[in-house]
Amino acid sequence: MLLKRLIIFIYLTTATFALFAQNNSKLLQKADAQYGALAYAKAIELYETALKKPKSLTDDEIIKAKINLALSYKQVKDYQNAERVFYDVLSGNPILKGDDIKAYRTFAQVLTSNGKFSEANLYWQKFNELQEQDKRGVEFVKLNSNREALERNSGSYKIEYVGINSSSADFSPVYYKKGLVFVSGRSANASIKRVFNWDASSFLDLFYLEDLKALGTETGASATGSSSQTASPKTPQPSKRLGSDYYTPPTANDTKTVGRKGSDYITGSKDLDYEETPSIPTEKFSKSLNSKYHEGPCAFFHDGMKIVFTRNSQSGGGGIFGQKKNAAITRLKLYTAEYEDKEWRKIKEIPFNSNDYSCGHPTLTIDDKIMYFVSDMPGGYGGTDIWMTRYNNGDWTKPQNLGGTVNTRGNEMFPFIDERGNLYFSSDGHPGLGDLDMFFIPMNTATAMPSGKIRNLGAPLNSSKDDFGIITDSERRTGFLSSNRKRGGNDDDIYKFTRLGTLYGCRELVVNIFDNETKKPFDRIRFEYEVKGEPALRESAITNTLGTIKLCLEADNDFNFYVKQNGYQPITVNFSNKDASDYESSKLDIYLKKEVLIVEKNKKSKVETPNLTANEILVARRNGNSISTIFRGVVTAGKDSTPIAGVLIKFINQCNGSIQEMTTGADGSYEFKRELNCDYILESVKEGFGKSSELVAKVEEKRSIINIFRKKTAPVNIGSLFDTKLYKVGDVVQLDNIYYDSESAKIRKDAARELEKLVNTMRKNPNMIIEIRSHTDTRGNAQDNLYLSQLRANEVVDFMVQKGIARGRMRGVGKGESEPVNGCGDGVQCTEAEHQRNRRTEFKILSIERK
């Protein structure tokens, strides 16, 4: 739960309700009271009961009750039931006013987390129309329309479920000595089970894994997060019902509304045949730190002798987020303690704590001089913000808000500072893939304030669920994060991640090339580009008929673009995408100026232009292989065959009448594409010269490239995948016979021949950009299958690169077991042949321009 994760805690109450003797109006009053006290599990029970017989309620009462019920489900992270109730109340287009308008925004967030992005955009737009202050919806609509931008780098990270997780919430790990300290709701054999009214979950304590080697890793052996890559940890196998996996979240159809009480209404609560026992033992961190209250995220001074930790306060406070005062609500506060005589002692509050607002989620810079934390204190931007305080001679300075670059009208929380001072945090106010997404921003170490652009970490570090509590090194090579991606709800778990590729995916750039004088776009112009300082990795591309092309360039880099066109001055243009958007395309307009020829006569030091007459004939000399699909040459004139510029060359296809044309530059060169089985007419025209025209005959059948190849390899015919069928952008084409052995990523020999066809297709369509998708069967662990499918996709990309296809034209994406082509789902008995059909590879056309 989002606000639970803010650690705005509630004391345990013992009130019970005799529901049978109360009318609906009184039930609503009770429900509203529990809702106001943030006791959402009890509020859900009361609202659901009252709404079963709504006849005695007014329309306004019904609408308000349903909105509060939907919000209650959202607060306990039951997005399936939240979607059901929101749709029930909002699909009728009620007239909402004041704070109730926020229901459209919240419903949009719920739909996004449930993977319904188009529907989410409709409600974001509705929210934008009804209010003017909160413009978050504009950016969320942009991202939901191009979510692939944050998912294209998913193959760069390996995510592993670790064996310290339990059936309860486990989250926010921090390095301590050689192990991890983390927050957990497990009971740890406590004689009294304490229940949190928010969602009827257990109270939180600090737990300790003494040695990271127990996970099969030496990640983060020091408090600074240094790391090394090692073997994968063991993954526990919780009990599950037939046909369902512990890693498969419920859907809106799985919600329960009848015959339930309290937390039983909440999808994902622990009464659903779900038990998970940690495979790696841990222990409570400290008897003196863990109390009868919640203990939340903490941070250690880097000598390990002092801790700053979160605890809900021991005295009642005022209202929260503008609500009325309620004695049942307590506040989050920060405390420090020192390690003496093998125990944590001298526990005391940090001075800026208050009973009127909350403070928590601390993180310390490597020199222990600056602490970042979360608070809803006055002076912020929205729900909760990230603040900064300095530690000088044992005293904490007045907190300073990090400002609007980081903080939004939503909730920012769970900050983490790496050893270089870079800030990570989670937010539902910045556009993301789910409810809480993790973000990164460089910081000025002198001012301790933001100094760069915020970046969404993208998939798979982020998911459609809550992702938060990350710890990592400055290069993000490895680390840990928290997420409820497995089952949703309050089932937070800790995951280890390892970076296998680049930090970020590519960022889109639209390149447009124009004539500087006419401002008209060029028709199919070739250019080259490279990462600045890496000429050996230079690549080429060709614009479409409108003079434009969309590229996806490696993030956070500077680039050089080189354009040479006959009759125009060559140009080099610099471009940087370091500050570019992750999900909006940047634009680069390039204008070419015509080449100016300076003729100087009567100077022996200069070469004079030949004295050509109108009776002289232009000669188009041919270069290269006569059977090549590229036809090139040089136009000359005069007795000494001097190359000449400004000649209009036309290359006319006699099969279909299509015409290619260009104007020569100073070197007189020209170049065209041709079909070998067609005759062409080559015309050369320049004012003041006689017209040159000649026939370029087709290549005879016996000398065609295809037949030469067939003679060498008959009877095998390896052609293009587009030989007999046309495809368009967005089509998904399955590659026949690209199968894999079970649990293997190695390309089988029977697959190589089909991949050769894809190679030929890419060669014949040099502007085509594709996404190579690999799938597994549905047996085994879903996370392992996703990782295996990514390896398979990468293997195909590597094969294509070895055949000369530029890596930048391909993107490998592992789809795991998520899209079977038959009914072989979880728990279904299938033959090996049926399973093999699911172990397939296909490609999606992202961009293509036919020649």
Task: For the structure shown, list the relevant keywords.
851 residues, alpha+beta, Neuraminidase, Immunoglobulin-like, five-stranded antiparallel sheet, 44 strands, elongated
Q: Brief overview, please?
A:
With 851 residues, the protein is an alpha+beta fold. Strands 12, 13, 14, 15 and 16 form a 5-stranded antiparallel beta sheet that branches.
Note the topology.
Layout: H1 2-5, H2 24-36, H3 40-51, H4 59-75, H5 79-90, H6 102-113, H7 117-130, H8 136-144, E1 157-161, E2 170-176, E3 179-184, E4 195-196, E5 201-202, E6 205-209, E7 283-284, E8 295-300, E9 306-316, E10 330-340, E11 343-349, E12 359-364, E13 370-375, E14 385-392, E15 395-396, E16 400-401, E17 412-417, E18 423-427, E19 437-441, E20 443-444, E21 449-450, E22 455-456, E23 467-472, E24 478-483, E25 493-499, E26 506-515, E27 526-531, E28 539-542, E29 548-554, E30 558-563, E31 571-576, E32 586-592, E33 619-623, E34 630-637, E35 642-643, E36 648-653, E37 659-663, E38 669-673, E39 680-685, E40 692-696, H9 705-713, E41 732-734, H10 749-764, E42 769-775, H11 782-802, E43 810-816, H12 832-838, E44 841-847
Parallel strand pairs: 26-32, 42-43
Antiparallel strand pairs: 1-25, 2-3, 3-6, 4-5, 6-7, 8-9, 9-10, 10-11, 12-13, 13-14, 14-15, 14-16, 17-18, 18-19, 19-22, 20-21, 23-24, 24-25, 26-29, 27-28, 27-30, 30-31, 33-34, 34-35, 34-38, 36-37, 36-39, 39-40, 41-44, 42-44
Helix pairs in contact: 2-3, 3-4, 4-5, 5-6, 6-7, 7-8
Characterization of this structure:
The chain is an alpha+beta fold and 851 residues long. Helix content is 17%, strand content 28%. Helix 3 runs antiparallel to helix 4 and helix 6 packs antiparallel against helix 7. The radius of gyration is 33 Å and the shape is elongated. The two termini are 54 Å apart. About 16% of the residues have low confidence.
